[in-house]
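Reopening: C-alpha cells for the pyridoxal-5'-phosphate complex, inputs below.
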Amino acid sequence: MATINVTRSSMPDFAEYCEEIRELWDSRWLTNMGVKHKTLEAELQKLLGCDYLTLFTNGHLALENVIEAFDLHGEIITTPFTFASTTHAIVRCGCKPVFCDIDPTTFTMDPAKLEALITDKTVAILPVHVYGNLCDVDAIDAVAKRHGLPVIYDAAHAFAVERDGVSAGAFGDAAMFSFHATKVFNTIEGGAVCVRSAEMLQRLCDLKNFGIHGPESTPYVGGNAKMNEFCAAMGLCNLRHLDAEIEKRRLVAERYDARLAGVPGLQINRIPENVRFNYAYYPVVFDGFQYTRDEVYARLAEQDIYARKYFYPLTNAFECYRGKPGFDPKDTPVAAHIADRVLTLPMYADLPLEKVDQICGIILK
Ligand SMILES: *Cc1c(COP(=O)(O)O)cnc(C)c1O
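Re-run output (same inputs, fresh job):
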C-alpha cells in the first residue's frame, strides 16, 4: 500500500525542465539575477498584481529582508497560528512579536482584537493569510491607517488567491510569498516580496545581495538571499501548469466537501463567493466530533495516510520561547482551541479522488 503524505510537490516533465535549463550551459550564468530570474520576476509581478516584486532564495529570508527594509525596531503585531517562520523572522530581526488572537472561521488575525494591542512601541502589523484564506484586509488596513503603521502580509499560503479580482499581492504595504516545494507554486526553494515603491524595491534588491548597491557602493549590512537560475527555471516551468494544478486541487477539495460538509462536529473551510481560491490546504476542525483530532490522525496513520497537525503547536508555545514575556498561548484562546483540533488532510493536484473517498471513509467510520 502506497504511503499518502499530506502533500506532494508539483513538477514539470523532466524534458520540459531540461529544455528550460539548456541555455544555462551556454551562458554559464548560474545566479545573480540572470535571464531566468528576470523572466520569472516579470511574470510573477503580473500574476500577483503588484507594481514591484523581487525574488528571494526562500520565503523566510524574504520575510526577514522585508522587515529589515522597513527598518523596523520594536513590537510587531502578528498571530501565533502560523508556521514557525513568521514568528522567528520577527524575533531574528530584533523585534518583539505581540500576539493577536484569530478568527475561528478564517483562522486569520481577528481585527476586533487588534487595536487594543497597539502601544507606543508598535512599529508594524504582520498578519498571515492562513491556508490561503485572506485576512480581513479592509479592517486591518483601517486600524493601521489610524495609527500610521505599515502592514506586511505573510502571503506564503495565498499564491494566486484573489478577492474581487484583486490579488493577495496587492494588499498592505508589502506581501511575502513562499515558493517552497510544498506550496501550490514552487521553485524548489524560493520566495518573493511585493512592495509599493521603486525605492523599497531597490532596498530589497540591495539587501538580498550583501547590501551592495553598485560596484563601489554598499549602503546596507545585507546578507545573501538571491534566487539562483535553476530554481527560477523550475518556476518558469511550473507556472505554465499552474491553472491546471489549481483546477485539479479544486476537484480534490470538492470531493472532500461532498463527503464532509454538514457532518456534525466537523468544521470545514468556507470560501467566500468573491474569492478565487488556490486550494493550498484542506483543513478540518474536529470540534465535538465522535473522535478527537489526535484519534483521527492516528487512525489515518495506521493506514499509511499522513495528515498534518498544521498549525500545532502555536508559535507562542514553542520551547525556544518558553518563559519569555508575551509568549503564552493562554493570551490567544481561540488560536489555542483551533490548534488542538485542526488537521490538514492530504491535498495535492494528483491525489486520486478514490483516495479522498478512502480518507473520508476512515474519518467517518
Ligand atoms: C512556507 C511558509 C513560510 C516560509 O517560507 P519558506 O519558503 O519555506 O522559507 C513562511 N510563512 C508561512 C505561513 C509558510 O507557510
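The chain has two domains: 14-100+108-240, 242-364. Residues 58-60, 82-83, 85-86, 128, 154, 156-157, 178, 180, 191 surround pyridoxal-5'-phosphate (CB under 6 Å). Marking as resolved unless the reporter disagrees.
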